[in-house]
Amino acid sequence: MRAKLSYAVTAAVLVFYFALVGSRGVMLIQAGTLLTVTFGVAVLILPVIGVWFLWKNTQFVRRANALAAELDAEGGLPVDELKRTASGRVDRDSADEVFDRRKAETEAAPDDWRTWFRLAVAYHDARDTPRARKAMQRAISLHDGKPVQTA
Q1: How far apart are CA 97 and CA 76, in angstroms?
Q2: SS3 90
Q3: 29 with 101: CB under 8 angstroms?
Q4: How confident is the model at residue 76 (pLDDT cuts 50, 70, 90)?
Q5: Torsion angle, alpha carbons of 40, 8, 118, 111, to 10
Q6: Is the pTM of this model over 0.85?
Q7: Element housing 148 (H / E)
Q8: Cβ within 8 Å of residue 114, ≥6 positions away
Q9: Contacts of range 137-146, beta carbons closer than 8 Å, 24 or more positions apart
Q10: What is the CA radius of gyration of the chain?
Q11: Which sign does the torsion angle of CA 77, 143, 127, 151 carry?
Q12: What DSSP letter does each residue of 97-117 carry, written as one string?
């Protein structure tokens, strides 16, 4: 729940910022000189990119959460079996061990979105965020029946 609240607050702050920057861009365009119109258009591009990025991330999070809920209903969510250090951080060897099992599970059933979801969690636990995101995107694509692009 805390993560959802943090995400909502961050998204609201970003939307406010985008609106503020966008209004400044419009003001520059309204000034009417070649220089201010050029800067105004350039300033308006930033909120457009930001809104698109926020939208894509929000859709990704919603779809990943939907998969987690479905997997939880099936009783297939991965159990947290990671060993932790005294400070509470995940033990790297433990994360690698779980990752190896998840990778083997995914290689055995490459068309099952569930195995890709669990692999994404293992990547995340191993602190490999880019690969975790790619694995989750693959799980979403497989779940939705969309063709999967291989890299």
Answers
A1: 19
A2: strand
A3: no
A4: confident
A5: -50
A6: no
A7: none
A8: 71, 74, 76, 139
A9: 137/60, 138/113, 139/64, 139/67, 139/113, 139/114, 140/60, 140/63, 140/64, 140/67, 140/113, 142/111, 142/112, 142/113, 142/116, 143/67, 143/70, 143/113
A10: 21
A11: positive
A12: HHHHHHHHHHHHSTT-HHHHH
**Six-digit token pair at 33?**
């000189």
Copy the structure tokens of residue 130. Answer: 């880019």
CB count in 10 Å sphere of residue 99: 18
Phi and psi, residue 32, nearest 5°: 85, -5
pLDDT of 66 over the 60 cut: yes
Could you identify the residue written with the tokens 């009783």? 75
